[in-house]
Write a structure and sequence with these properties.
By secondary structure, the protein is of the alpha/beta class. The protein has four helices and seven strands, in the order E-E-E-H-E-E-H-H-E-H-E. Helix content is 27%, strand content 33%.
Length: 177
């Protein structure tokens, strides 16, 4: 954003092609772009819901593409692990340096959706992976990729909030997509 502002806004309008009596408005918002040399190393654990409800193109396939875009920005100082959950949970990729992009992308390409949704067990395993790869003074984050449907194991929203708060106190944050 120009002038040190936290974000900038750009607005454009035009006549609607199918109805000259109406207008379309496009609003663009851009936040400040940090200096990548000043961003600390990141320890990221992708916790990916691979249950059957994630099969549509606008869910798991779209999120895999988004994760690959993030991986392109990582360096050797960064780390990535992938934990998947459906009816069960497993580590799909142990903590891997961010410059091993082909290995990370190959693990992402192996993900497919089927089964029920045991998110509670997946979260526990993801936090364990985040603890193993913990980077002192770095960014330590579990990134939960889900459609939000937890129907096996820990299913109460409040229990998940409490867990996230407890783990945040240890320096591991949770982001949900």
């Amino acid at each position: 954003a120009p002038g040190g502002a936290p974000f900038s806004v750009q607005v454009e309008q035009g006549v609607t092609p199918w109805n000259p009596n109406t207008r379309l408005v496009q609003i663009g918002i851009k936040g400040q772009v940090p200096d990548l040399n000043e961003v600390p190393a990141a320890n990221l654990v992708f916790l990916v819901d691979v249950s059957g409800s994630m099969a549509p193109a606008n869910r798991l396939p779209m999120m895999i593409n988004a994760m690959k875009m993030l991986v392109r920005e990582l360096s050797a100082a960064d780390r990535v692990a992938i934990v998947v959950y459906a009816g069960g949970t497993e580590v799909a990729l142990e903590s891997t340096p961010g410059d091993q992009k082909a290995k990370i992308n190959a693990a992402l390409d192996q993900l497919s959706a089927a089964g029920s949704t045991n998110g509670g067990a997946g979260i526990q395993l993801a936090y364990a992976q985040a603890e193993q790869g913990y980077i002192e003074d770095g960014i330590n984050r579990v990134i939960l990729v889900t459609d939000g449907d937890f129907n096996v194991g820990t299913v109460t929203f409040q229990a998940l909030i409490d867990l996230a708060r407890q783990r945040r106190a240890t320096g591991i944050a949770l982001t949900t997509l």
